[in-house]
Design a protein that fits this description.
2 strands, about 45% helix, 1 helix, mainly alpha
């Protein structure tokens, strides 16, 4: 491996590490269950304001 190939290898490794760190920092966490997306609340009837389940 000559100097030119080695410099390109090091340059590519630096760029990929930098890119991975940017993606890691810029990723946002998601709130599970935000805005009622996880559970369904019954709105009418005798079971009003209770969380519906799939079990029967």
């Amino acid at each position: 491996m000559n100097k030119f190939e080695f410099k390109n290898l090091v340059k590519n490794l630096k760029n990929t590490l930098k890119q991975k760190s940017f993606f890691k920092e810029l990723r946002k966490e998601v709130d599970t269950g935000a805005n009622g997306t996880q559970d369904y609340v019954v709105k009418k009837g005798i079971n009003k304001d209770t969380i519906a389940t799939t079990r029967q």
